Amino acid sequence: MLLQRIGVAQRERLIARVVCVLGRGVGVLAAHTALVRATYAAQEVMSQAVLFNQSWDEEHVTARFCFELPPEIRFSLFSRTQEGRVGADFIWWFVDEQAAFGCLTQAKKLRCSGGVWRIGTDSPRKTLAQMRRLHAVADILNIPASYVFYAGDARYRSSMLCDKNHHGPLCTVRDGAAVTFLPTLIPEATVRAEAQFGDRHDRCRWLTTTGAIDAFHEAVPISWLVDPTAWRKNTSRRCATYRSLGLEHGHELLDFLTTEQTGARGIARSVLEIIAGIAITQFATITMEPDASPHEVGASDAPTFVSYPDTRGHFSRPYYRFVLRGLRHRAPDYVERCLSGDVPSFVSTNADGLIVVDLTPEKLMH
């Protein structure tokens, strides 16, 4: 009864505190608690800006988010080494005793301009240039690239009308909607079309007035990545595309796709399902010749899988490789170096910080 009478933000803060107590010493729950806490800290910054009719920038919100992560989650902010950087490109690593999964994220504010929601505050051409650079850096680091959307509070999103089917609460009012995660392969077509055609929607079938809202709908609250319960309750995505891959029985990738995965491997699987859930609904599957494995930079650890299906649906590149190249048996050496303050130059010149989510229970016991 109490939870029904208090506001959404208060209710979720209370739940987060309860989870914090119950989850102390349990890797996944403690990590989830930290991400929920950081999400609401970031939302508070955005809410205050909306309250006083002010704007916010991605760098400030990202810093506030990071400062709420400890002690459960470690992070490192790098010194600015490159002029003109936004300050919101972060390398994430989810680690446990058996595996590690990394990804490169770029924070993007969702804003409404002239009644149309857009990704980012820059011009469409600059947004596309930033995406291309993000993909280039992700290729250097050999990890997938993703957006982290900053979408304010429920009042800020009140004009965001989503007409998609929802398997749970509306995407605009779901728990954790202020900070969401989306692999960049999904909004890439929209970003490219807006850069090329501007607002001339009649000249490109990919360009709609709902591109940013559609991307937000497909994005998942970042706290869900470490919360399998929330994931299963609020999405119908499953890796069903494996049925058309022709993988032989006993293939390590088939086992990964068809059996329950937890920890870092579970997060890699969840990220893959975000894309695969869309690819399976597309009209045709476009394939290409498998490309050579990228050179591993800054670490001696190769990706877990040595080969990937070349399926890419309507995306610009094969999405199995795009995501699963970030899955390793252990994190690269540069991760601990960054946390100790010894940041390699190839990392500091390509990212603004590092976040390490340790899902190993005993690492969070004290």
How are the SSEs ordered, and which strands pair?
Layout: H1 2-5, H2 8-22, H3 27-51, H4 58-67, E1 74-77, E2 89-95, E3 100-113, E4 116-119, H5 124-141, E5 145-150, E6 179-183, H6 188-197, H7 211-218, E7 220-221, H8 228-234, H9 252-258, H10 263-279, H11 319-324, E8 327-328, H12 334-339, H13 345-348, E9 353-358
Parallel strand pairs: 2-9, 3-5
Antiparallel strand pairs: 1-9, 2-3, 3-4, 3-8, 5-6, 6-7
For the secondary structure, the number of strands is 9
Taken from the alpha-carbon principal axes, the silhouette is: globular
- Rg, please? 20 Å
Main sheet properties: 9 strands, mixed
Structural class: alpha+beta
Mean pLDDT: 79
- How many H/I helices? 13
- Our estimate of the beta-strand percent is 5-15%
Unreliable sequence segments: 1-6, 11-26, 283-300
Tell me the span between the first and last alpha carbons: 34 Å
What oligomeric state is this? single chain
H and E order? HHHHEEEEHEEHHEHHHHEHHE
